[in-house]
């Protein structure tokens, strides 16, 4: 999506502004491969969610935060609250202390999505010292994201690997934190939290693994849900995202095509009601803005992370990108970025042939924030005053409008849907008298009303978005600040069939209210995608490639790289973790290998290893490996990473004269686990594809990401047990099957 204006646009945050455009904000980086300057939170604009243009930076020397020491600003989060645009961000080095990397979160505000931006003047969340208290030891105060709950309470999520992810309450004006924060994502596992509400739950999206490991970046997005914005957030298996063996259901992970590092997301709802994941990723064939430099064996350079959009499905109450296909590499159906009927009221639309009024007149007005919008010409006291589209829609639809009452405590303004006459229509009202979102279904033989209370501090005199979805005889309504999946009030109910078969879309004023309206229209409601990618089939076992470890010695098909380890006894192969490793230039660990069969296959093992919980036992690990050399392999292991336990699916490969290493995470681990790697030969691209799967019972499997290797190599398959002495791995079997 950012291809038209930027080679890299990381950590994207997207909003549909009150001027009718979509805006995206990204982390500070050079935008293209031909420039060296860092843009301080670059901004782009789009009419249709597909074609974007760079519109400038949030900060420059004239308005950058005075408390910023080094000009690096990361991870913007855009919001619209009570008539003002808020942008939360990270400063990596501040003037709060005289120490390095004392990162903190700030906020800047503006009347329009392009400024002028006025910084708050001090950190919202200041530098937080680590437990050691040593100079320069600061917890990572990264990745802010605001949430407004049902009832209007505001929260801020922030944090990263070093220290964990927290949520704290914000003041009503969004400029101060209140009370004590709560940890919702364990340290050393999650960052980039982004929370939305859907139905009865709050869903916390969070990214895991290294964001920036070039062609081996395994960065991925996970999710958990809770009925409270303070968590705990549990995954689909009921595991918490704040415990040592952290849960997290995969939303997107690298799938074997060109894109790796698929992470740090926001969520966008298009005009048809379809959700989209906005995220960044890395092209594994072109992973850096410029050729990376080599520091020993480590590659150093700016990772090229363009902004991408992909469809976000909700299957059985859980979000997943493209039904589990994950990132798209070919053309797919684009978001619906514009209304099919209606729109804004600029020079292209106005109030000419597209609209008709009844019960009173509407006038065009202009403002810096909105551009052109419409207002009632006089108080609507005698009867409702409608502005309706001349075009009509038949069938399922999603309608919305930006609405406000100029007299905060007086009158009512509504979004009208399926208007056939004053005796047959549906209206979602912002009703100042009842302080409620009132949905009224009007029929010739009567009417029905659904009332959802609005907070006592709801500002009727500021712009809010009211949306109505009609699917068959089901209606869903909501009011938000800016359609960012954080409804202040919402309702859902059923009506008799054919109540809303056709009609116009528009707005209505009543009860002496002086009202404004903008961005009024509707589009065909999206069709849900219910299909989810199935698990790879295992098929029949290949006897020549299996070992049940029932003899006293390994069979003759096995061989060792470096000295032999472990022993076969009691129906298992027992192998204490070595104080050795396979990591870049440290290639001291032993590897137990055998040839892989030709064609497609699945290799599986049952692993028992007690790594405990919470304590630091880095980096004891054991599991499967696909091996084509000490610096060209993929491994699927249960590993201790500081205080956490993870199932890491890592890849190492030579690249640009150095060595690239990165990992992705699959399902939550346990003392006893089942691990699978599924091999498929991609002959079109002459590659081996290896997909990881994990299970905690041998029956229910979690489908993980894909690493690739060149088809010119012939990898072997086997086992590893390494990363530090102190644990013992027991492999109950090693099996290979055909699909």
What this model shows, in words?
The two termini are 36 Å apart. The protein is elongated, with a radius of gyration of 28 Å. It folds into 3 domains: 260 residues, Tachylectin-2, Chain A; 184 residues, Exo-inulinase, domain 1 (Jelly Rolls, Sandwich); 195 residues, Jelly Rolls. 0% of the residues lie in helices and 48% in strands. By secondary structure, the protein is mainly beta.
In CATH, the topology of the largest domain is named Tachylectin-2, Chain A
**Tally of individual helices:** 0
Q: Based on DSSP secondary structure assignment, what is the total number of beta strands?
A: 53
Principal-axis shape: elongated
Largest sheet: 8 strands, antiparallel
Coarse structural class: mainly beta
State the separation between the terminal residues, measured CA to CA.
Answer: 36 Å
| Overall residue-averaged pLDDT value | 95
DSSP helix fraction: under 10%
Indicate the proportion of strand residues: over 45%
Write the layout of secondary structure elements.
Layout: E1 13-16, E2 22-25, E3 42-46, E4 52-57, E5 73-81, E6 84-91, E7 104-110, E8 118-119, E9 145-148, E10 154-160, E11 164-170, E12 177-185, E13 191-198, E14 201-208, E15 220-226, E16 249-252, E17 259-269, E18 275-283, E19 293-295, E20 298-300, E21 307-315, E22 318-321, E23 341-343, E24 355-358, E25 362-367, E26 371-376, E27 385-389, E28 397-405, E29 412-421, E30 424-431, E31 436-443, E32 446-453, E33 464-471, E34 474-480, E35 489-494, E36 504-510, E37 515-524, E38 559-561, E39 567-569, E40 572-576, E41 582-583, E42 586-587, E43 591-594, E44 601-609, E45 621-627, E46 633-641, E47 644-655, E48 658-665, E49 672-682, E50 687-695, E51 701-710, E52 716-722, E53 728-737
Antiparallel strand pairs: 1-2, 2-3, 3-4, 5-6, 6-7, 7-8, 9-10, 10-11, 11-12, 13-14, 14-15, 15-16, 17-18, 18-21, 19-20, 21-22, 23-37, 24-27, 25-26, 26-37, 27-36, 28-33, 28-37, 29-30, 29-36, 30-31, 31-32, 33-34, 34-35, 38-43, 39-40, 40-53, 41-42, 43-52, 44-49, 44-53, 45-46, 45-52, 46-47, 47-48, ...
């Amino acid at each position: 999506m950012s291809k038209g204006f930027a080679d890299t646009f990381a950590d994207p945050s997207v909003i549909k502004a009150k001027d009718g455009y979509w805006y995206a904000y990204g982390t500070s980086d050079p935008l293209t491969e031909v420039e060296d300057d860092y843009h301080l939170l670059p901004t782009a604009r789009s009419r249709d969610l597909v074609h974007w243009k760079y519109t400038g930076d949030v900060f420059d020397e004239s308005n950058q935060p005075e408390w910023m020491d080094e000009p690096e600003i990361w991870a913007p989060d855009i919001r619209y609250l009570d008539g003002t645009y808020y942008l939360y961000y990270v400063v990596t080095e501040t003037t709060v202390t005289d120490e390095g990397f004392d990162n903190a979160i700030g906020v800047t505000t503006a009347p329009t999505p392009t400024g002028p931006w006025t910084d708050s003047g001090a950190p919202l969340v200041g530098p937080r010292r680590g437990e050691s208290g040593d100079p320069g030891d600061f917890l990572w105060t990264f990745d802010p994201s605001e949430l407004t709950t049902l009832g209007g309470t505001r929260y801020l999520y922030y944090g990263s690997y070093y220290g964990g992810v927290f949520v704290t309450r914000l003041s009503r004006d969004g400029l101060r934190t209140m009370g004590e924060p709560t940890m919702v994502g364990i340290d050393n596992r999650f960052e980039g939290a982004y929370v939305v509400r859907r139905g009865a739950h709050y869903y916390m999206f969070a990214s895991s693994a290294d964001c920036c490991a070039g062609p081996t970046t395994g960065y991925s997005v996970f999710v958990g849900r809770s009925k409270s914005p303070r968590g705990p957030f549990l995954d689909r298996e009921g595991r918490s995202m704040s415990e040592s063996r952290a849960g997290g259901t995969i939303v997107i992970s690298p799938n074997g095509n060109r894109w790796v590092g698929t992470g740090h997301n926001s969520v966008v709802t298009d005009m048809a009601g379809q959700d989209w994941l906005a995220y960044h990723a890395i092209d594994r064939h072109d992973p850096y803005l410029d050729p990376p430099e080599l520091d020993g064996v480590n590659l150093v350079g700016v990772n090229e992370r363009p902004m991408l959009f992909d469809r976000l499905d909700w299957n059985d109450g859980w979000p997943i990108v493209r039904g589990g296909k994950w990132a798209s590499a070919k053309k797919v159906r684009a978001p619906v970025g514009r209304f099919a009927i209606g729109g804004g009221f600029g020079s292209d639309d106005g109030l000419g042939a597209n609209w008709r009024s009844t019960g009173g007149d509407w006038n065009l007005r202009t403002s810096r924030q909105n551009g052109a919008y419409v207002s009632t010409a006089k108080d609507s006291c005698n009867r409702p005053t409608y502005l309706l589209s001349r075009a009509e829609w038949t069938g399922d639809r999603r309608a919305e409008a930006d609405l406000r009452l100029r007299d905060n405590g007086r009158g009512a303004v509504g979004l009208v849907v399926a208007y056939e006459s004053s005796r047959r229509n549906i209206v979602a009202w912002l009703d100042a008298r009842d302080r409620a979102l009132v949905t009224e279904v009007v029929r010739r033989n009567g009417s029905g009303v659904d009332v959802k209370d609005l907070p006592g501090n709801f500002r009727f005199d500021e712009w809010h978005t009211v949306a109505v979805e009609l699917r068959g005889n089901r209606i869903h309504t909501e009011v938000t600040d800016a359609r960012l999946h954080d409804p202040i009030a919402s309702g859902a109910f059923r009506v008799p069939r054919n109540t809303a078969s056709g009609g116009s879309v528009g707005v209505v004023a009543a009860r002496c209210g002086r009202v404004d309206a903008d961005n009024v229209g509707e589009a065909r409601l999206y069709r849900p995608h219910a299909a989810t990618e199935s698990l790879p089939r295992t098929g029949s076992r290949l006897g020549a490639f299996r070992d049940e470890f029932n003899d006293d010695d390994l069979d003759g098909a096995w061989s060792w790289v470096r000295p032999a380890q472990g022993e076969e006894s009691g129906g298992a192969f027992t192998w204490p973790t070595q104080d050795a490793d396979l990591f870049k230039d440290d290639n001291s660990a032993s590897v137990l290998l055998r040839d892989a069969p030709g064609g497609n296959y699945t290799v599986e093992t049952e692993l028992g290893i007690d790594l405990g919980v919470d304590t630091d036992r880095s980096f004891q690990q054991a599991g499967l490996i696909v091996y084509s050399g000490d610096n060209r392999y993929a491994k699927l292991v249960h590993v201790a990473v500081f205080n956490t336990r993870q199932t890491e699916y890592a890849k190492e490969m030579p690249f640009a004269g150095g060595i690239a290493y990165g990992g992705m995470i699959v399902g939550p681990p346990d003392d006893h686990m089942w691990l699978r790697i599924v091999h498929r030969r991609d002959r079109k691209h002459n590659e081996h594809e290896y997909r990881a799967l994990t299970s905690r019972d041998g029956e229910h499997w979690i489908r993980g990401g894909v690493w690739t290797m060149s088809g010119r190599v012939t990898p072997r398959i086997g086992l590893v047990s390494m990363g530090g002495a102190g644990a013992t791995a027991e492999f109950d079997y090693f099996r290979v099957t055909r699909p």
